[in-house]
Write a structure and sequence with these properties.
Elements: E1 5-14, E2 28-36, E3 40-44, H1 51-57, E4 66-71, E5 74-75, H2 82-88, E6 89-92, H3 105-115, H4 120-133, H5 149-161, E7 167-171, H6 179-194, E8 199-203, H7 207-210, E9 215-220, E10 223-228, H8 230-234, H9 237-242, H10 249-259, H11 271-283
Parallel strand pairs: 3-8, 3-9, 6-7, 7-8
Antiparallel strand pairs: 1-2, 1-4, 4-5, 9-10
The structure holds adenosine-5'-diphosphate (ADP) and magnesium ion.
Magnesium ion binds at residues 51-52, 171.
Length: 284
């Protein structure tokens, strides 16, 4: 892919401050990563591997201790660029309740653009467009706390869309949702990327969600372990298991059958690929 980089991590390390004098270990270690315009990149890694820290470094919520984070070429260390960086990259977090700031849906969505100093008439249009994009326009006068988890999360996403950010980083946005909420949010994210052209970084621990990405980055202990297509990454089942991650069920079944002598390809990823590869093997 030759699209323009939108987020670049260059030898980035980060350490949280401890409550006392002790030095905490680095949460992110010498990370090099480029996210290009239009990509949908999934980030996988077990708890504590540094995913949320990476998300917060991507729009200057946290600043690197070493190395550089560039957003459209803007260095996150430069305080004067903070607004422009937040206008380019938005982050949606795991817990929808922590992201709601107003008592009416449309006011909540307006909060981001208001803070950016967007004129009122323009805000009106952005809020309506954003709520339509996430299928929540009919709920614009509702109270956010009465919505389902999936609906709240879509309102949070609308808030970022209304800031017209080119890139959205999602930090496990479906982790606290039921299956139907999860599906609503996944469909919204697909639409943002495939139809609206937003660059998406999608942090998740659901393997079936990661399969949908153009690219998967696997983190372990603050470092990037793999960076490749879903097919490349999930072919390394053994190494993923060693760092506490699963592979999609179809890939796992194929791997087990293959180890038992069934002739299957190395890179079975989806259910339909598994079925056709298995039928082929069975017909032999
Ligand atoms: P993940 O999102 O992959 O679970 P995090 O980025 O949240 O990982 O955490 C990376 C490391 O930094 C972990 O060891 C975690 O305990 C530590 N950490 C995260 N937040 C803080 C904090 N506010 N203060 C101190 N340590 C933290
Ligand atoms: Mg996290």
């Amino acid at each position: 892919m030759t699209n323009k980089p939108i987020i670049e991590f260059k030898n980035v390390s980060f350490r949280y401050d401890s409550e006392d004098e002790t030095l905490l270990p680095l949460a992110v270690k010498d990370v090099n990563l480029t996210i290009r315009q239009g990509e949908l990149v999934a980030v996988l890694g077990h708890n504590g591997s540094g995913k949320s820290t990476l998300a917060k470094l991507s729009n200057a919520i946290l600043l690197p201790a070493e190395g550089q984070v560039l957003v459209n070429g803007m260095d996150s260390q430069d305080e004067a660029l903070e607004y422009d960086i937040r206008k380019t990259v938005g982050v949606v977090f795991q817990n929808p309740d922590n992201q709601i700031v107003a008592s009416i849906v449309e006011e909540d969505v307006a909060f981001g653009p208001e803070n950016l100093g967007v004129p009122p008439a323009e805000i009106r249009k952005r809020v309506d467009d954003a709520l339509r994009a996430v299928n929540m326009y009919d709920y614009r006068h509702h109270e956010p706390h009465k919505l389902s988890g999936g609906q709240k999360q879509r309102v949070a996403i609308a808030g970022i869309i209304a800031m017209l950010t080119a890139c959205i980083v999602f930090d496990e946005p479906t982790a606290m949702l039921d299956p139907s909420g999860r599906k609503e949010v996944m469909q919204t994210i697909q639409k943002l990327n495939r139809e609206m052209g937003k660059t998406v970084v999608y942090i998740t621990h659901f393997m079936d969600e990661a399969v949908e990405a153009d690219r998967i980055v696997v983190m372990d202990d603050g470092k990037i372990l793999f960076d490749g297509t879903p097919r490349e990454v999930f072919a390394r089942a053994g190494e993923l298991k060693a760092v506490g991650l699963d592979v999609p069920v179809s890939a796992e079944l194929a791997g087990l059958l293959k180890a038992d002598g069934v002739e299957l390809p190395n890179d079975v990823l989806t259910v339909s690929e598994f079925v056709s590869a298995f039928q082929k093997a069975a017909l032999k």
